[in-house]
Amino acid sequence: MEDEVLYSTVVFTRFDDSQRRAADPVEEVLYSEIKRHGEKPPSQSIPEPTVEAAASRTPSYRTAIACLGLLCVLLLAGVVGMSVFNIIQVSQHRTTLELYTNESTAHSKLKTETAALEKEKEELTVQRNQFNNTLRSIIQFPTFPVRAFCQIRDREIHCEPCMMNWIQNGSSCYLFYNGYDWKSWENSRQYCVGMGGDLAIIDSREEQEFIMQNSPFYYDIYHGYWIGLYKNPEVWKWTTGTKLNDGFWIKPPHPSDYSCGMVKPSSNALNSWAPTYCGMKNKWICEMSAVEWPDKL
């Protein structure tokens, strides 16, 4: 049975000798606990929890600790896994980058080598064409006059497109015979053929002007230079068989005119052709293709 506690109220009044208070004094109330004699004071200690209560609280925080530990393990495993994954990815990326760099270097090298081969191919093609053109020019001669085209200077062979005493104009060489052994049209042509060419064929205004610039006056106004123009029987043709469409005649030819054509030295370069007796002795003009020598002999 619990102890009964009796409370009593004791009032004390404080009196100040130096000053009296006009108001009522303030009462101070003190409480005192009076215990019965011989009774033990009640225990002030906090009652300890029972075993059941402690047991009921223990699993909750152990579970929380276990969950936190498991979460830490999972996080650590995730971090380790991500680190390993990143390492693998970086390694693969580095390997891919190295392969790309090697392939890029090899591609650049291959491209450079291909360009060099293409350039060499072009040079070889040019040389091949030059050799073919040279052979075409050479086979025109019964016996090719090497010394007429080529000379040795400073222990090196130097070859010209035209023989000595011939003049080059474009892709052709011209010989303006200036000797005293004048010939007929037919004999003049044989001379040119023997040199590897033929009587000159004029098929442009530029060539006509070139011919006249190198055809000086000689002997009298009746003589001139044979060219590869003839009439057969009523049609004027070139020695190649090509029909003449137009010309640089002094005056238009008449059907009754002679059958061989020549150029006469004239102040008017575009009017200098004249039909003449084929047996007349004149000088002549030979034409042949310029020899295209390879750049490297």
UniProtKB/TrEMBL annotation:
Boundaries of every C-type lectin domain copy:
169-287
Q: How does it sit in the membrane?
A: Single-pass type II membrane protein
Which terms are listed as keywords in the entry? Answer: Coiled coil, Lectin, Membrane, Transmembrane, Transmembrane helix
**Mind listing the GO molecular function terms for this protein?**
carbohydrate binding
Q: Where in the cell is it found?
A: Cell membrane
Q: Which residues form a coiled coil?
A: 107-134
Q: Which Pfam families match?
A: Lectin_C
Q: Which SMART domains does its entry note?
A: CLECT (SM00034)
Q: What is this protein called?
A: C-type lectin domain family 9 member A-like
Species source reads: Astyanax mexicanus
